[in-house]
TrEMBL record:
One of its GO terms (biological process) is protein secretion. Component of the Sec protein translocase complex. Heterotrimer consisting of SecY, SecE and SecG subunits. The heterotrimers can form oligomers, although 1 heterotrimer is thought to be able to translocate proteins. Interacts with the ribosome. Interacts with SecDF, and other proteins may be involved. Interacts with SecA. This is Protein translocase subunit SecE. Keywords: Cell membrane, Membrane, Protein transport, Translocation, Transmembrane, Transmembrane helix, Transport. It is found in: Membrane. InterPro entries: SecE_bac, SecE_sf, Translocase_SecE/Sec61-g. The gene is secE. It comes from Roseateles saccharophilus. Essential subunit of the Sec protein translocation channel SecYEG. Clamps together the 2 halves of SecY. May contact the channel plug during translocation.
Length: 128
């Protein structure tokens, strides 16, 4: 058996620093929000939004952020390739599913009642 290829994740010190900065900015945003409660709501929310935006920007400048953006672009490209059913096809398939559910429900109900009759009435002799 061949060994599967090893996947190596290479992260540079700068990338780790960007991620650490993003985390520190997010923590700073929460600390600023609660620490500036006496300054008024406008200052609180402004500091929260600015620091959160800076943290998100720092994350998206890192390799993990760039990979997330690439994943989103690839996903969007794949969704555009999907052949979606027409309204008529979707309605027909929904009807088939509902019909199958009703048939299965009736089958299971009849099976349950048959087993109940066999066990309680015929075998055990319990009449209700």
């Amino acid at each position: 058996m061949a060994n599967p290829p090893q996947v190596e994740t290479v992260t540079s010190g700068a990338d780790k620093a960007k991620l650490a900065a993003a985390v520190l900015l997010l923590i700073g945003a929460l600390a600023a929000y609660y620490g500036l409660s006496k300054q008024g709501a406008l200052v609180q929310w402004a500091s929260l939004i600015v620091l959160l935006a800076a943290g998100v920007a720092a994350f998206f400048m890192s390799e993990h952020g760039k990979a997330l953006i690439a994943y989103g672009r690839d996903s969007s490209r794949e969704v555009k390739k999907v052949v979606w059913p027409t309204r008529k096809e979707a309605t027909q398939m929904t009807g088939y599913v509902f019909a199958f559910v009703v048939v299965m429900a009736l089958f299971l109900w009849m099976t349950d009642k048959t087993l109940e009759w066999v066990l309680y009435d015929l075998i055990l002799g319990w009449k209700r």
